[in-house]
Structures are given as structure tokens and as C-alpha cells.
Amino acid sequence: MTGRVPGDTLLAARRATALYSRELEHLSDEDLRGDSTAPGWSRSHVVAYVALEARALAIALDGLASITHPDYEPVGEWGAAVDFTATLGASALRNLHHHTVVHLNVACRDLPDAAWSVPIEVSGRRAAPSALMARRELQIVKGTLALRTGARVGIDSTGLPVVTPSAPLFDSADVTTKP
Known about the structure:
By secondary structure, the protein is mainly alpha-helical. It has a single domain, classed as Four Helix Bundle (Hemerythrin (Met), subunit A) (Up-down Bundle), CATH 1.20.120.450. It is built from six helices and five strands. The protein has helices at residues 7-26, 29-32, 43-64, 79-85, 90-110, 129-146; strands at residues 120-122, 125-127, 152-155, 161-163, 170-171. The strands form two sheets. Strands 4-3-5 form a three-stranded antiparallel beta sheet. α1 (7-26) runs antiparallel to α5 (90-110). The longest helix has 22 residues, at 43-64.
């Protein structure tokens, strides 16, 4: 690898994020408080977790780019933070999601080429940013399905996630773990 995140990896993560964002916007404020497919979590918990995980990744990437930020614990250790964040109002949760999407996109844009192959630790995982972005794509797909909106995710001819009414790669009934 040349050090730069593979274009397909970043594109896949962005497509998955666009799908997730659309599904989130289709949920009413009341529906956002409903059950997810993740045991013990509401849809608000899923939104909180996905947003906090994006923030942790963006902060780690900012650190590689020599932008100073406070240290953050891995999201996996943020049980109380996810629970608290899940209590925010629906518009605050949506705004948090949108803000973290922008922050992560800017962090990816500003990361020097050489830094894409430097291992960093995010949420208890040590890997190069390019591998973490591939994981992010899967996490977003799982988060989308955990929202229980009926979304079905398939893959296109290039292997990237797409919404499809048939031949799902994943289906909300198949997702019973937290993103």
C-alpha cells in the first residue's frame, strides 16, 4: 500500500454513512427512542455510539496530523457516555451525527499521505487508519441495520454497499450485536 487510504475504502465508508444518514432522517423523533436490534439498546443508543465512535476516530486522525486534542478513552469503555448521549433530544442526536460526519471527513482530508499507514489505537483496536476506515464502513452498515428501519444492504459489482430490495448482504434480522 502506498500509505494513502484506498479510494474504494473511503468511498465505501462514505456510501455507508450516506445510507445511515438517510435512514436516521426517516425516523421520527418518537421512533428514535424505539428498540434497536442491539440487545439492551434503543435506536438512540445506536446513534450515540456511532457518533462517538466517529468522533474518536476523527480525533485519532487529527492527532496523526499533529492537531492537538484531549485524549479520549476508547468508546467501548464509554458505556456511561453512550447511555448519557442516548438521552439527548432527537435533534441533538441528529446534529451530533452530522457534526461527527463532517469532523471525520475533514480529518480524512487533512491526514498526510504517510500517516495512512501509521498504526494508531482507536476504541481498543490498533491498526492503520486505512484499516480503521474499512472497519468504520462495516460499523456504519451494522448501525444502519440496528436502527430497524427496514433498510436492506447489498453489494454492488465493485463490492461497495448499496441499498437494495433484494439479495441483502445483511438484513436487520441478522444483526443482533451492537455496532
